Amino acid sequence: MDALTLSSDALEVVVLPDVGARLHRLRAFGQDLLRTPNRAAVHEGDPFYWGAYVMAPWGNRLEARRTRFGSRWLNLPSNFPDGSAIHGQVYARPWQVREDGLLTIHGGGDTWPWRYQVGLRLSVSGAELRIELELTNRDDEPMPAGLGIHPWFRRPVRVAIHGASVFPNNLDPGVRSQPVGGKFDLRVVREMPDDTDATWTALSEPAVELVWPQRAKAIMRVEAAMTFIVAASPSTLDAIAVEPQTHAPHGLRRLLAGEPGGLTLLEPHETLSVVARLGFEQLAE
Predict the structure, then answer these.
(1) 3-class SS of residue 67
(2) Which of the residues 23, 69, 92, 270 has the least number of beta carbons within 10 Å of its own beta carbon?
(3) Of residues 104, 109, 106, 118, the one with CA closest to residue 141
(4) Are strands 84-86 and 72-75 parallel, antiparallel or unpaired?
């Protein structure tokens, strides 16, 4: 399987264009920080729980049923055990690599009836990884759109999510945001409680801090028109997900209902973008 490697004295990033342009490996100061399988081919059979992958033209869950939006009908199939349509269409498909290093993929015109293009540009400078994402509506009608990236960070890791509000249950289509409290108040670095699956908003700067004790620290800064941090900590997994996105879960229903956290409505040829920067610091052993 072809791989691209970006590196500096501090960081090493390995990307697999043929499997969703996903980050297969992220090493900081020689330490693996992503949940990386022993063989790259594992991503093909189990695409949701390894590495870091792009979510587009939506992130998190949409209902897997026939739904009308404007003059178009969506008819998304379920791709997840809970019966939802999750994480978009590009997380495991082959991407193209341009001469300038941009990774691209075209999609839509099928169960997602709008045509679109996604671009990913990765760069490493010193101890910083920069992830630039773009989703462009290539159709002649407005398109609902969502964009994000889904990394699985290896445990043991502590986290702070600097959000004042939270959607406390990503599986509930009708859940509304509320002030953080109890296990959802992660504004100070600590272990994320097991089996959390929620979305934070009203974020301050930086959005996220990650600490691998006696190994490394990372600061995540996100630039987007609207930013949400989705996080999950399955007790059965040796990793947690901390995902910058442009919308809350069930974003299509929220857009149709006029609720906060919905997908963005992109006009023809308009682009939605997200920039996530991860700056790393080595910690003393």
Answers:
(1) strand
(2) 270
(3) 109
(4) unpaired
Question: What backbone phi and psi angles, to 5 degrees, belong to 210?
Answer: -130, 135
**Half-sphere exposure of residue 188, counting CA atoms within 13 Å on the CB side?**
3
In the chain, where are the structural domains located?
A: 4-282
Closest CA to 226 of 115, 148, 139: 148
Beta carbons within 8 Å of 83's beta carbon, 6+ residues apart = 64
Residues 6+ apart with CB under 8 A from 97: 4, 17, 103
Task: Express each pLDDT in 153-192 by its tens digit.
Answer: 999 999 999 999 999 999 999 999 999 999 999 999 999 9
Residue 206: which H helix or E strand, with range? strand 197-212
Can you give the pTM of this predicted structure?
0.97
Tell me the CATH class for 4-282: mainly beta
At 184-235, the pLDDT tens digits run 999 999 999 999 999 999 999 999 999 999 999 999 999 999 999 999 999 9
CA-to-CA distance for 134 and 121, rounded, in angstroms?
9
Report the amino acid identity of residue 192: M
Give me the DSSP letters along 140-194. Answer: SS-EEE--EEEEEEESS-EEEEEEEEEE--TT-TT---EE--GGG--SS-BPPPT
Please check whether residue 114 is in contact with residue 108, taking contact to mean a CB–CB distance below 8 angstroms: yes
173 dihedral zone (left: phi>0; alpha: psi -120 to 50; beta): alpha
